[in-house]
Amino acid sequence: MLKIAKTKIEQKKVDDKISLLQAASENLPFPDSSFDAVTVAFGVRNFNDLEKGLSEIFRVLKKDGVAAILEFSVPLSFPMKQLYLFYFKKMLPLIGKIVSKNNMAYTYLPETVLSFPQGKEFTKLLEKTGFAKTIFKRLSTGICTIYIAEKK
Description:
This protein is an alpha+beta fold.
């Protein structure tokens, strides 16, 4: 993804304004209180150590900084939940297998989504790592959720 981003940045001639960096979420190479905001989209569930990664986000945020995290989630209402789980557990891996010729294709995504703490459980983890004013809102009939947390 970084290679593709680098190519796009060069094509748009904004390489003097945007720099790319690869780093582990659990050990961000930035000083304390470096950023006004941190955003993560569909990646927090892949942190090797979720609590440590969230602590690092908290560390690099300035006072009154905001973390906005968008992550997949499981719908709660009938019949959306049942349809989603059927598609996610049965159809998506089958489609992935057919398209990629790989038996394991698209099995990782459902596994990580289903094991990720969702809703209030995730906001409690955010609070445990130091965040305040944690809120969440389910989007797209519950297929994803946005979490907002502030550093006070």
